[in-house]
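Bit of a strange request maybe. I'm writing a small parser for structure token strings and I need a real example to test against, not something I typed by hand. Could someone generate the tokens for this chain?
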Amino acid sequence: MAISITESAAQRVSAYLEKRGQGVGLRLGVRSTGCSGYSYVINYADSVDGEDVVFEDRGVKIVVDPEALKLIDGTEVDFVKNGLNEAFSFKNPNVTGECGCGESFNI
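Reply from user aminoacidic:
Good idea to test on real output. This should exercise your parser:
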């Protein structure tokens, strides 16, 4: 099981954590929602809970709840800038379909 991060995403997370002055890494999860079933939840992790699974890639810790890991194992987190828009994006090999707006996915 693994979660990876691109260089662009690693730079974004590292810069933001430095600016914040606290945090241990990126927290990645999922929630039931949307027209396709699940959506990604991404936050900065201030701590690691006892059951969390921690991956480290490109110098960044990625903290994941074990239940979410079942749905996102193998995902690559990227940070994309497109004109004035910028956001994290996800390449999840487990996804079998996505909604038209790109906000949710199913497995």
